[in-house]
Design brief:
This protein is α+β, with helices and mostly antiparallel strands. Helices cover 24% and strands 34% of the residues. Helix 1 packs across helix 3 and helix 2 (30-37) packs across helix 3.
């Protein structure tokens, strides 16, 4: 049975998706919504939090809640470093770091191993659409460059396996800041590691995209054995 929070959120969601509440328009204040729906202000805030997480509204402190202009959805293709499209631009910052914590575990290297970190932010115009941190052991990619959709690994001849884990969660403070989104808006995160035939990890990538404006597509090609078994 729907809760009061869900009922209010569904009513406002319908008004937004049908165009009754247009992009850029300001929602009534929380006290006015509470009076309208005959509920408490905390219940209204819970309903608005749902809509913020879905990316339908955004809250501007001191001004109120506004209907967001829908973003064009972008597509992440399995195995890529960052989303690529003709109208997307990617800025890249390269630094040298040491393998620690979660990154060391993903790369399966000793602590403090030198790594090249690529910090990539993809933009559509002035709007950030994705942020990625890509880590490669220094002995594998001392001078990697943006050259192809498989960048920055650039070692497709060595790569024999790619493992990707997709998760939906709330953004970290760093992700929320880089993507310019509310901390209550969910992100789609992709953790990708590439391995060679010996099982060595060639690179580890951590990618985050606003989940309400992104899709992830993975294509599976049958192996020779699977083809034979048909």
């Amino acid at each position: 049975m729907p809760t009061l929070r869900d009922t209010i959120a569904e009513d406002l969601r319908t008004q937004i998706t049908t165009g009754h509440l247009k992009p850029g328009s300001r929602l009534p204040s929380e006290p006015k919504l509470a009076t309208h729906y005959k509920v408490s202000t905390p219940t209204v805030r819970q309903a608005l939090a749902l809509l913020q997480a879905e990316g339908l509204i955004e809250k501007t402190h001191g001004k109120g809640n506004f209907v967001r202009t829908p973003l064009r959805r972008i597509t992440y293709t399995g195995g890529a470093g960052v989303p690529f499209a003709p109208d997307l631009q990617t800025t890249i910052r390269t630094t040298i770091v040491r393998a620690r914590g979660h990154i060391r575990t993903l790369l399966k290297v000793p602590s403090n191993t030198p790594l090249t970190e690529f910090h990539c932010t993809t933009y559509e115009g002035e709007t950030p659409r994705s942020v990625a941190h890509i880590y490669i052991p220094r002995d594998l990619a001392p001078t990697a460059r943006l050259a192809s959709p498989s960048w920055p690994g650039g070692r497709d001849t060595d790569r024999t396996e790619t493992q990707e884990t997709v998760t939906a969660r709330l953004p970290t403070p760093e992700e929320a800041s880089a993507l310019r989104i509310s901390p209550t808006r969910t992100v789609l995160t992709i953790t990708r590691i590439a391995l060679n035939s010996t099982g060595r990890v060639l690179e580890a990538a951590l990618l985050a995209l606003p989940s309400d404006a992104a899709d992830a597509v993975f294509t599976t090609h049958p192996t020779l054995k699977e083809e034979t078994d048909r």
